[in-house]
C-alpha cells in the first residue's frame, strides 16, 4: 500500500548573492519495499532515515534551487537511484552542481511510480508539482504554499507565470486534495482556491 512519509531538514538557501536559513520538507512516497524521494535538500542521513530499508527507485526534484537539490548527487550515489529534473532548470542546476551532469529529464504528464508530473513554471522555469491521485495528494515544491503562491522575487522567476500555473494546473485538482509543500505546513486545494485567486 502506497503511503507518504515525511521529515524536515534544515540548512540554507542561496541565490542572487544572498543566503537564508531554511527548513525544507522531505517527502518519500512508496510502499514497504520501494519508494520515490521528492527533493534532496540538506542531509543525506536525514533522508535515508525516512527511507529506511526500502529501495529508492527515483529522486524527483521539484526544481533546482540549491535548498532542494544540494545533496541529490550524493543521495543518488548512496542509493543507486536516478535523479529527475525538468530540463528548463539547467541554469539553476549549474549554479549548485556545475560539474555534475543534468539529471534525467522530467516531462509534463510523465508518471513516476504513483506520481504524475505537472509542469508549473513561475517559481522557476522548470518547476514541477507531483500529483498522486490514489493518495489524494499533490507535492508542490515551492509553487503553492499554505496562503498562496511561492516567491517570485529572484532570478528565473515570474509572478504572472506562477499565478497562471496555480490557476490552470493546480486549482483544477479536486478541492480535497492535500497539498504537501516544500516548506511549512500542509494545506488543501480547496483552502487555497480563494487565496490563490485573489
From TrEMBL:
Region annotated Disordered, chain positions: 177-198
Gene3D superfamilies reported in the protein's UniProt record: Ribonuclease Z/Hydroxyacylglutathione hydrolase-like
Domain Metallo-beta-lactamase residues, every copy: 23-183
InterPro entries from the UniProt entry: MBL_Glyoxalase_II, Metallo-B-lactamas, RibonucZ/Hydroxyglut_hydro
Top-level taxon in the UniProt lineage: Bacteria
The protein, known as: Metallo-beta-lactamase domain-containing protein
The organism of origin for this protein: Mangrovihabitans endophyticus
Amino acid at each position: 500500500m502506497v503511503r507518504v512519509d515525511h521529515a524536515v531538514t534544515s540548512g540554507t538557501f542561496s541565490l542572487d548573492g544572498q543566503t537564508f536559513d531554511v527548513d525544507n520538507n522531505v517527502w518519500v512516497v512508496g510502499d514497504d519495499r520501494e519508494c520515490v524521494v521528492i527533493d534532496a535538500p540538506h542531509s543525506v542521513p536525514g533522508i535515508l532515515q525516512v527511507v529506511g530499508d526500502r529501495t529508492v527507485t527515483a529522486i524527483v526534484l521539484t526544481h533546482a534551487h540549491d535548498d532542494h537539490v544540494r545533496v541529490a548527487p550524493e543521495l543518488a550515489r548512496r542509493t543507486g537511484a536516478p535523479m529527475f529534473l525538468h530540463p528548463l532548470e539547467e541554469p539553476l542546476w549549474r549554479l549548485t552542481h556545475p560539474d555534475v551532469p543534468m539529471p534525467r529529464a522530467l516531462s509534463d504528464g510523465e508518471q513516476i511510480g504513483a506520481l504524475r508530473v505537472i509542469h508549473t513554471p513561475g517559481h522557476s522555469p522548470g518547476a514541477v508539482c507531483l500529483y498522486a491521485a490514489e493518495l489524494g495528494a499533490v507535492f508542490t515544491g515551492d509553487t503553492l504554499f499554505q496562503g498562496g503562491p511561492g516567491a517570485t522575487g529572484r532570478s528565473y522567476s515570474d509572478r504572472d507565470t506562477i499565478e497562471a500555473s496555480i490557476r490552470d494546473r493546480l486549482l483544477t485538482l479536486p478541492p480535497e486534495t492535500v497539498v504537501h509543500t516544500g516548506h511549512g505546513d500542509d494545506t488543501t486545494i480547496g483552502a487555497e482556491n480563494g487565496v490563490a485567486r485573489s
